[in-house]
Amino acid sequence: MTPEQMRDSSLLELFSLEAEAQTQVLSAGLLALERDPTQADHLESCMRAAHSLKGAARIVGVDAGVSVAHVMEDCLVSAQEGRLYLRPEHIDALLQGTDLLMRIATPNNAPGAADIEAYVALMGRLLDPMAAAIPSMTPAALVMAELQVEAPAPTIEEPAAPVESLAVSPKLARRTTENGERVLRVTAERLNSLLDLSSKSLVETLRLKPHLATMQRLKRMQSNSQRALENLNVHLKEQVLSLEAREALDDARRLLAESQQLLVEKNAELDEFAWQASLRAQVLYDTALACRMRPFADVLTGQVRMVRDLGRSLGKQVRLEIEGEKTQVDRDVLEKLEAPLTHLLRNAVDHGIESPEQRLLAGKPAEGLIRLRASHQAGLLVLQLSDDGNGVDLEKVRRSIVERQLSPADTAAQLSEEELLTFLFLPGFSLRDTVTEVSGRGVGLDAVQHMVRQLRGAVVLEQTAGEGSRFHLEVPLTLSVVRSLVVEVGEEAYAFPLAHIERMCDLEPADIVQVEGRQHFWHEGRHVGLVAASQLLQRPASQGSQQTLKVVVIRERDAIYGIAVERFIGERTLVVLPLDERLGKVQDISAGALLDDGSVVLIVDVEDMLRSVDKLLNTGRLERIARHSNQVVAAARKRVLVVDDSLTVRELQRKLLLNRGYDVAVAVDGMDGWNALRSEDFDLLITDIDMPRMDGIELVSLLRRDNRLQSLPVMVVSYKDREEDRRRGLDAGADYYLAKASFHDDALLDAVVELIGGARA
To answer: Is the pLDDT score of 200 beyond 60?
Structure first.
């Protein structure tokens, strides 16, 4: 690449940045002028933006940009001077010019010369209808005419300034925010690295605190030593000491006094250094964190224009109002929010807002209003998108449910409003009978819900017939930092994100009840299942004998459970450190972080943990949490593993054994049972013969070949009652064979007692 080509490439990149900033100003200003064409401040800002783009295009030699910006500027100046009143067709044409300028500045997307000529001719007709009969000037001629008027050609004696000198124009060389701050481009990887380093720097400075405490203790010890030496000196004054002894004592007093003074001075310096270092590290961390945060307005670029254009294409008048534009949100969250917000806005325009005629008949203004509000709430970004349209036709939803065979007619007739609205989020569900360019395929709300859930958020739809609909979205404010409750489980620290915590509580033994063989406690008018975090996270259970149980109540949409932990450490703001990709997805864990003392804490994936709870419930392998009363631990119960592919038989055996006092786990087939036997300890195995994946005979054979399990008692319960079947089971290694044909409660329980005794060890 030649130096000239490199120079041109650099200039075009600068022009592209300038065009991106100025077209945003034009779009916002023109949409405001559409509502009130006489607003002087918006006319001024749009005119300046067009003028700036014209100058920038001239500098880099983009004649098409000069032509388009020039006619736009003419139109805006005419409006400023009162010679032209901006009508909708003028706003449409100016917005079209804004789009053309952005295309001109985008590499490989520039419009053709015919498009530019057509646009210049269009603006000419709008500015002077009589000019329609006069052939319009070509873009090149227009550029040359303008150059002759505004910038006379330099004489031979005074050569023109080289293009390079113009390229450093501040207008092109930097981008600025609305506050005038300079904006630079930095990769996300570098920002993440900076945030990681700053968090570690903050942790390292916090580790100075124990050293300071030690130094203070040392200073006190030395002060005590100096007082002790002075007391010794007082007592020795009554004694007759040799000159050498007196000199040695004086030397000791002098050295101790000097060391005490030095220690005091250095201790003060260290204390000052630690305070300054922690302050600067905190500022560094806060600044690095702020670099990842951007105003919510960044995701709204073009949305106001999109709503306006879509409404006009559908014959509707629609206005978008935005509140909370300056709400700070993580960059990654903003990027992932753009698509869902676009879906919801298009949905509101197409489905929510009525036509002007319908609105006037309903006593509403002809112009529909969509309001988008962003705010912070408990570490979450809360978005409310509402419209003043007609709401959702619930009866049409009900009919569509029946037509699509999603529910029988009698069931659909009994569905509540909340239940009906949830059908709108199903894949392929739409209230449109035909597919259009805007809607009808049933992918909009389904995609919104999917994207929001990827952000660990939630979306809810509410509506009022004839008055409009409201979407309520909650997503984490940042994916880089999470406010969490740190707890202790199996002598390890784990963090639960506060956004998923319903409450924390201390449970007394009397508060825990047994419902259908599982532990529950009463919370907000309902029984909530109680699960041990040590079982979920595969940590050793606590051997403590505390009277109360520490419980974290977690919620994800409709699912709610209490998770029993050993200790509450406290709330912390944690910088998320992604796990090494080589680990893959770690069950129930989303990421890691560092605590103030430098120790590692794992951040719990609440949604994944709730799935783990459901899995344990479905397999019947949920362990009971030991409850202590008067500091006396009850005798351990004997554990029985029931393996059967029949849910009915499995549940019957489980309830019989539970009622007799045994601790029971279940498995759905031989493979599941074999995995349970290898990972947990049992006193008895009860298994069926015919099961998928691994039958009972193979399971017993594997067990008898295992050194740890070969002595475990085994009972076979099978439908097969023939002698050869019985002999086959016993030959495989079973200790007892019970036919289901002669099965009854006492027979099973008597056989269990015969094999392993009573339920208590």
So the answer is: yes
Residue 56 contacts residue 48 (beta carbons within 8 Å): no
Residues 439 and 526 grouped into a single domain: no
Q: Tell whether the torsion through CA atoms of 401, 406, 411 and 417 is positive or negative.
A: negative
Q: Over the stretch 256-292, which tens digit does the pLDDT of each residue have?
A: 888 888 888 888 888 888 888 888 888 888 888 778 7
Scan for tokens 């995609």, then name that residue: 447
Instruction: Write down which residue in 253, 275, 294 finishes a domain.
Output: 294
Cβ 575 vs Cβ 595: under 8 Å = no
CB 46 within 8 A of CB 29: yes
Neighbours of 554 (CB within 10 A): 23
Domain that holds residue 98: 3-183
Confidence class for position 433, pLDDT limits 50, 70, 90: low
Q: Is residue 631 part of a domain?
A: no
Chain segment 469-525, per-residue pLDDT in tens: 999 998 887 777 778 899 998 888 999 988 788 888 888 877 887 766 678 888 877
DSSP string of 174-198? -EE-TT--EE----HHHHHHHHHHH
The model's pLDDT over 715-755, given as tens digits with 9 standing for 90+, comes to 988 876 677 777 777 888 888 888 765 566 677 888 888 88
How many domains does the chain fold into? Answer: 5
> Amino acid identity of 646?
S
Q: What is the dihedral of CA 190, 191, 192, 196, to 10 degrees?
A: 100
The DSSP-derived string for 117-128 is: HHHHHHHHHHH-
Q: Which residue has the tokens 């045994």?
A: 662
| Element of type H or E holding 571 | strand 567-575
Q: Is residue 178 located within the same domain as residue 197?
A: no
